[in-house]
Amino acid sequence: MRATHHLLGKGLLGRSMEELRRRTHIALKLEAVKGPLDPRPLYDFDTAPSVQDCIVMSDTLIGGSSKSNLDFITPASSGSSHSVAACSSSPSAYARFHGLISTSLPADRPKIQRSGYAAFRTPDQRPTLFGRSFWDIDPYTYLALRIKSDGRSYFVNLQTEAVDPSDLHQHRLFAKYPGRWETVMIKWNDFVRTNHGFVVEPQTELLRQKVRTVGIGLTDRVQGPFELCIAKVWATNQVAEGATVVNSAESELKNRKGQKIHWCKAQNQNAKI
Questions:
Q1: Which residues form the NADH:ubiquinone oxidoreductase intermediate-associated protein domain (predicted)?
Q2: Dist CA 12 CA 20 (whole Å)
Q3: Which of 123, 187, 121 is nearest to 154 (CA)?
Q4: What predicted TM-score, i.e. pTM, was given to this entire model?
Q5: What homologous superfamily does CATH list for 37-75+90-250?
Q6: pLDDT tens-place string over residues 125-143
Q7: Measured at the alpha carbon of residue 56, what is the angle toward residues 178 and 14, in degrees to the nearest 5?
Q8: Which residues of 16-53 are buried (b: 16+ CB within 10 A; e: fewer)?
Q9: CA of residue 272 relative to chain centroid, distance
Q10: C-alpha angle with apex 76: 75 to 77, nearest 5 degrees?
Q11: In degrees to the nearest 10, what's the CA dihedral of 224, 70, 137, 156?
Q12: Residue 175 burial (CB < 10 Å; 0-12/13-18/19+)?
């Protein structure tokens, strides 16, 4: 019996063969010893299904009024105000994360004291014959994102196979050129563990072999519209030409005492544990 293209492309067997090819490539190139030379793609937003499979969230889960959308954009589908620029650095297809932030509190839920957020994340990875699927980014230094931001204070969110499933590892997404496509690179070691928006103390190291999802959130609680476009995310050891490499001096994350957290301070605390 010959496997069909559909089975190989989308089924358990297809995902398993892709993982086997990846592991074989690592072995043949001795990447486990020398380190990987090529970047590892994590998620591309270049097809309608890849965008539709993402999980979109907002404060409507707690009765808030913010609006959050994630649309697939191509030159044919985009209007004049969101058309792909003619320059060669613009992607031919991407996802547009947009909506409206509202800080209005639900009248029928007096215990809710804060609202005004929106977010999305990539879908959970499907299992293979090797078991549950994760991104093993341990051999890589940077997380890279190809984005076009409106300049608002977005965060990159990572989910791992953590003991507490509500934990995230977060980092500010510092866009240097709002309104233009750019590559932003963040060191994996600079992500800080948080829970419900607050830094968790003591810190624990990012489980680099078991990264489940990557996402972007907006929690600045500034009322009004927002828009961020994203083409792809990947892991790499090479700094891309013209990329913005984040200098993690200070975050906008806070602990439960309301104190701002410095990235270097959080990492030093982690090293002492």
A1: 44-230
A2: 12
A3: 121
A4: 0.78
A5: Galactose-binding lectin (2.60.120.430)
A6: 877 665 578 899 999 999 9
A7: 105
A8: bbeeeeeeeeeeeeeeeeeebeeeeebbbbbeeebbee
A9: 28
A10: 95
A11: 10
A12: buried
